[in-house]
Design brief:
The protein is built from two helices and two strands; from the N terminus they run ααββ. The chain has a two-stranded antiparallel ribbon with strand order 1-2. The protein has 187 residues and is mainly α. The N and C termini lie far apart (63 Å). 16% of the residues lie in helices and 2% in strands.
């Protein structure tokens, strides 16, 4: 009987701490409003729609499920930020840095992503429909099941899938003897 009580107490404590770990921290929100910087803050689920966050520092911040629709995030530092399921509809992200950020299942519909850096960013199942992509850097980004600006959904394979060919076919078919390298291609 004592083991059941102890187990139940441990489980309730664990779930209580877990719920707090993913909750919006009001002190972090106040810090953001007063200083325009809040690196490593917990702003998960925050309503920051239409907020002026120009040049804000939200490096490594938790913005999971946050509402940033129509927010001005131009030149913002969102490096390593967790924006999973965040709503960034019609947001201004011109010149923003999102290197290594997690935007899994985020909505960036009609957002301005001009000159933004999405280097090594996870855009799996993100919605970019109607987004403006002038000079946007997506080097190494994951586009698995991503809705592109044209409305086309990408493959369900990871972005590196084409490099994982199992067999090579017709290697060196057109190779000349003086040219180094190979002309192999996969099936």
């Amino acid at each position: 009987m004592n083991i059941k009580i102890l187990t139940t107490t441990v489980l309730f404590t664990f779930f209580g701490l877990t719920a707090q770990a993913f909750a919006l921290n009001e002190q972090d929100l106040e810090l953001l409003k007063t200083t325009n910087a809040c690196p490593r803050c917990d702003l998960s689920g925050a309503d920051l729609s239409q907020a002026n966050l120009n040049k804000v520092n939200l490096r490594d911040a938790n913005l999971k499920g946050a509402n940033l629709s129509q927010a001005n995030l131009s030149n913002a530092d969102l490096t390593g930020a967790n924006l999973e399921t965040a709503v960034l509809t019609s947001a201004n992200l011109k010149g923003a840095s999102l290197t290594g950020a997690n935007l899994k299942s985020a909505s960036l519909e009609n957002a301005d992503l001009s000159a933004a850096g999405f280097i090594s960013t996870n855009l799996e199942a993100a919605n970019l429909k109607g987004a403006k992509l002038q000079y946007t850097n997506f080097r190494g980004a994951n586009f698995r099941l991503t809705t592109m600006p044209t409305g086309v959904v990408t493959s369900n394979k990871p972005y590196w899938w084409s490099l994982q060919r199992e067999t090579q076919k017709e290697c060196d078919k057109f190779k000349t003897e003086k040219v180094p390298g190979s002309t192999c291609y996969g099936e």
